[in-house]
Amino acid sequence: MTNLRDFTSLRVGGPAKNFVEAHNEEEIIAALNSAGDSPVLILGGGTNVLVSDAGFEGTVIHITNNSMVAEVDACSGATLTIGAGENWDDFVALTIARGFAGLETLSGIPGTIGAAPIQNIGAYGHEVSEFITRVRTYDRKAKVVKTFTNSECEFDYRSSIFKRNPGQFIILDVQFQIRIGNSSDPITYLELAKKLDIQMGDKAPVHAVRQAVLELRSSKGMLLDPNDSDSWSAGSFFTNPVVSQQAADALPDAAPKWPLIDGRVKISAAWLIENAGMHKGDEVGGARISTKHVLALTNAGDATATDLIELAKSAQAKVYEKFAIKLEPEVNLVGLSLL
Fold first, then answer.
1. Which residues are catalytic?
2. Of 291, 298, 297, 289, nearest to 329 (Cα)?
3. pLDDT, tens only, 180-229
4. What is the CATH number of the domain that holds 167?
5. Count of CB atoms situated within 10 Å of the CB of 226
């Protein structure tokens, strides 16, 4: 049997009952149809998943299709259609190298193209949904290829119709619309503006923005390094909670808060964890909170999935006890629960 620890950034996870490599769209659909109604786990880069020590009693499909179709117009920019198995950061680097702008603040996010719309990945003031025009999927229920326009994807903060219907729509490729240019959009994230030594609202060369973002992510342990176990994580383990204005007002003034257009407020999960009594370097078994960032739960070298879940439960419980706010996992839990 194939051990899933070899295919995840956390380096934990038991065996897969069935494991299939799918290199193109035809192989993906064939594997899905062959699996029938049995459970299916889609793996791309394995960077946003925590798999049980018991493994997965179903079919794991490792998607590696990385096709690209490009249509470039001097006025309208570039329309790029990318296979679900393409590495996300390689794609971002390619767009910049070819003279396109827009994706630079999303540099360094681990994972694949296919995972990006599911989670509506985002960083430093931008989300991938800003650039997606359509998503092609295979609908396991209807057994047909189904295409979603941007609005039909129902994008929300770290969510989408694909995340809300797990296992139904398997992403085949994603189409992006990005502009031609060497300057970024106005920088609206204070930490990034300071790193670039510019004022909020100013623009910067896209190459400089990408480099600054990569350096910031590295300083937080959010860039995977095979030689540094402090980076063996699934990225941010929890999402930043979105609460009512009343709940936000009950928090200390020092808590970072970002008002949303619907009247709710986004709160920093990292601040909540640190101020609830958890610390960088805290350990449970072989699991450890990164020494660089409290949102990254890492495999210190010999962690089990159970260790990581217990560490996450501890952070979740302390935040709820102190602030009456429940942290929700950003990581996809397979055969595991925080309940």
1. 158, 236, 330
2. 297
3. 999 999 999 999 999 999 999 999 999 999 999 999 999 998 888 888 88
4. 3.30.465.10
5. 9
Q: At what angle do helices 206-219 and 88-97 cross, to 10 degrees?
A: 150
The pLDDT of residue 74 is 65
φ/ψ (deg, to 5) at 296: -100, 115
Q: Are residues 125 and 205 in the same domain?
A: yes
Q: Is residue 339 part of a domain?
A: no
Q: Report strand pairing: 144-149 vs 283-284.
A: unpaired
Structure tokens given for 95:
């767009």
Helix (H, G, I), strand (E, B) or coil at 181: coil
Q: Hey, what's the torsion of the CAs at 125, 222, 158, 117, to 10 degrees?
A: 90
CATH number at residue 316: 3.90.78.10
Whether residues 175 and 276 fall in one domain: no
pLDDT one-digit tens code per residue, 95-133: 999 999 999 999 999 999 999 999 999 999 999 999 999
Report the percent of the chain where pLDDT is more than 70: 99
How many CA within 13 A on the CB side of residue 293?
Answer: 21
The answer to whether residues 272 and 166 belong to one domain is: no
Q: Is residue 147 part of a domain?
A: yes
Q: Which domain holds residue 16?
A: 2-63
Is the residue at 223 inside a domain? no
Residues 52-91 have pLDDT tens digits of 999 999 999 999 998 888 787 666 789 999 999 999 999 9
Domain-terminating residue out of 195, 217, 239 = 217
